[in-house]
Amino acid sequence: MLRRKPTRLELKIDDTEEFESVKKELEARKRQREEAESGVGGASVISVDIIGGGASSSSTAAGRAELINERIGYKPHPKPATLPTLFGSLQF
């Protein structure tokens, strides 16, 4: 069995900035929940929190995907769905 050295992980400035921004966002959400629970109690706050949380999480997921694509250099180009592009230029 071959022995190899442990893989080295590199921490980049972008990674630390992303971590800090996510951390601040989570802390802000936690403060908002605590304020909402202490100010107004009940199920209405929970239902609004669920609806608001779902919308923001999907938008951050799209932003995160764009950030990752930018980081790795992936630029998706949608292909047009016209007949000549699907079948080529067929001539009979």
Automatic annotation (TrEMBL):
Localization terms from the record: Nucleus
Lineage: superkingdom: Eukaryota
A GO biological process held by the record: cell division
PANTHER family in the cross-refs: ANAPHASE-PROMOTING COMPLEX SUBUNIT CDC26 (PTHR28579:SF1)
Any matching Pfam family: ANAPC_CDC26
Record organism: Champsocephalus esox (pike icefish)
Classification of source organism: Eukaryota, Metazoa, Chordata, Craniata, Vertebrata
InterPro entries tied to this protein: APC_suCDC26
Keywords for this protein: Cell cycle, Cell division, Coiled coil, Mitosis, Nucleus, Ubl conjugation pathway
Similarity comment: family membership: Belongs to the CDC26 family.
Protein name in UniProt: Anaphase-promoting complex subunit CDC26
Pathway in which this enzyme or protein is active: Protein modification; protein ubiquitination
Annotated GO CC locations: anaphase-promoting complex
